[in-house]
Write a structure and sequence with these properties.
Layout: H1 16-41, H2 46-56, H3 62-76, H4 80-88, H5 100-104, H6 113-120, H7 127-139, H8 145-177, H9 182-219
Helix pairs in contact: 1-2, 1-3, 1-8, 3-8, 4-8, 8-9
Amino acid sequence: MPRASKRAAPVREPNLRGMNSAYLWSFIAANLAIFLTLVLNRQFTGSSVEHLWEGITKKNGIIAAIIPFLAIFLSGALSDIGKARLVFWRWHNPLPGCRAFTELVRTDPRIDLPALMRKHGDFPQDPKAQNAFWYRLYRGHKTARMVWESQKIYLLTSDLTTISAAFAILFSVGAAVASTGWKISLTYTVALTVQYVVAASAARNYGRRFVLDVLSEESYTP
């Protein structure tokens, strides 16, 4: 009897958000350490942060215990659309795939544009149709290493942007209520705002790269 051919094992999709959780928790912990330093010590120095950090990172420290819950809540409170609005500063059609073919596809020299057009014909122009078509292409390449790695870092920076936006509001109000002094409070608010802007800028770049990596993979796939 002929031997039955072995079926190839399906490629497992990596747990991207799980890979990012440690980075998110560290980011939240660092921001909490700075905030509590300002509130409790009314100052911000390297030694004061180090002293407080030693206290909150003990095994049974109450802050260390709530860090995972804060990470889950803050990164999961908004939908992908809501996070994209904070990242791209667009209310309508904020997802980067909505501009995949009208703005992005011609900006990446890696993409074989003629080959892509031969395979798929004219590209959609409507933002929602662009995103839907791009997502269909993404599903065919989501286990490609280049694609999932760029998606992972986009998800990370998107979550960091969301958390930074929340911290810019909540910690600024907290510092003001705690009477840290208007100079310290103002400086802290500016620093939190800059943190959010930098995170959003990074997430925008990585979001575009994620979209383009999918199109690059598709353009060279037979």
